[in-house]
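Example 5.3 — Ligand-binding SRPBCC domain-containing protein
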Amino acid sequence: MQLHLKTHVRQNYVTVFEAFDEVLFRKLAPPYPRLNLLRFDGSKPGDVVAIEMLTGLSRHRWTSLITEESITATEAYFIDEGQELPFPLRRWRHKHLVTKEGSGAIIHDLIEFSTGIKMLDIVLYPLLLAQFSLRKPIYRKVFGKV
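Solution (predicted structure tokens):
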């Protein structure tokens, strides 16, 4: 299943892209589940990001590997792919794309995920949409509202 969220921001696309660091990662963390950052190497191919999700009664580990990065005259992106995922996820691919738009930029969160069960994917879709929509006001606060 695919999810695509767009956020228009004021800053230049390269400046925005280069700000995808541990500080921004921590700001983007949702209020629930609480995240414990175990490892953050960066956003370059070969880097690893590992978190522990704390859901109250249980802990779930999530480890992603940065597999791609590209910067061109009009866009920049990196991709993280889940290596160790919490149940029920079986596949996770998140493309963090920033495109040029005039003097500003558009931040795209392009997410492909699967549980292996179509009906469960459909149930998870609105939950993931809601959770990733929480990033929009944070992006606008950090990079300026258009």
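Remark. The domain at 2-143 is CATH 3.30.530.20 (Alpha-D-Glucose-1,6-Bisphosphate; Chain A, domain 4).
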